[in-house]
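Lab notebook: predicted structure, single chain.

Context: the supervisor wants predicted structures on file for every construct in the current expression panel, including those that have not yet been purified. This is the next one on the list. No modifications to the sequence; it matches the entry in the shared construct table.
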Amino acid sequence: MQDAIRTKIDYQEIAKSFQEILHLDGSPVAVKFITSEDHLPEGVAHIGETVTHCQMVNKARREGSIFYATKENHSCM
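Prediction complete. Output recorded below exactly as produced.
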C-alpha cells in the first residue's frame, strides 16, 4: 500500500536544477547509511574497490557513478 502513495521523483531534473541554481561543477551527491545487508539497494552495483569516503563522493560527483560500499571498502575509518 505504501508504494501506491509514493510520488515519482525526477532526480535527474532536480540535480540539473541544483547544478544551474547553485553553479555546481559536478553532480549533487546523496549518501544513505544502512545498518543491515537486508537494506542494500537493489540493482545498484558494489563499488568493488577500497578507497576513502572523499574519493567515493568525488566518483559520484564527477563521474555520476551510482554504487554502494560496505565498511570494508572504506580505507579510512
